[in-house]
Write a structure and sequence with these properties.
single chain, 101 residues, alpha+beta, four-stranded antiparallel β-sheet, 5 helices, 4 strands, elongated, Panthothenate synthetase
Length: 101
Amino acid sequence: MKMLVKIICPIEPFNSMVKDGSAGKVLGRIIDEIKPESIHFTEIEGCRGAIMVVEVGGAGDIPAIAEPWFLNFEAICEFRIAMTPDDLMKADLENLGKKWS
């Protein structure tokens, strides 16, 4: 199952890590460990952030994805299930519409 992970890194400790040269190394290590399908860095709510797509087998995979961000950057991580168009078609929206009309 694909998950979208929104990561928000507070100004600190990230600024201190940039200044001491450790931010890039830690980011690289996290990305190498998690192996996201994709990751894009951006600003979120005025902070450094990222949107990541990861494949998970179940809820038990979430701590291994979130903890490196929590422990190294005191980040906020939000997880959302992501569907492909094929996944959405399998939902049988027509019949759901009839059932709940």
